[in-house]
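REQUEST ID: PR-0412
SUBMITTED BY: lab tech R.K.
PRIORITY: routine
TASK: structure prediction, single protein chain
INPUT:
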Amino acid sequence: MSSKGLASYVQTDRSVDGKGHPVALPGIGEATLTDICQSAEVDTPVGKVVFKLTAGGPAGEVTAGKLVIDGEDLDGDATFATAQIGRDASTLDRVDGVKGEPGKFGLQAGNTEVVGVKSHAWSATGGNFRLKGMRVSVGLDGKKCF
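STATUS: complete
OUTPUT:
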């Protein structure tokens, strides 16, 4: 994944039942990804069902504008340009609209490259997605991305 601009801070997402989930919230300006795979495993009356969305690969690059991920973890090999680590989350300005609460930990960077990205996320949203070669599948005891 490569991007023009990255801003990130820590927050707590809440499920409908009110339970809190600590997440890192990275906001990515304009992202280019070579492959994506997102999956979710859900218990249903007919058994475990895996929802999976894939795109990219041989079909071409996937692009997203203003991509925001609420993630529990993120693994990969990263290169950050003009990194600012430990900046007050309320002053982040690399990605429009991605700011945290005053006094909270934040980080941001210019151009960013992450190779081999794997993340467990509660959600991912983006202003504009272009998913070349998109495939959506739902299956009993299907295989998750990783």
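NOTES: The radius of gyration is 16 Å.
REVIEWED BY: pending
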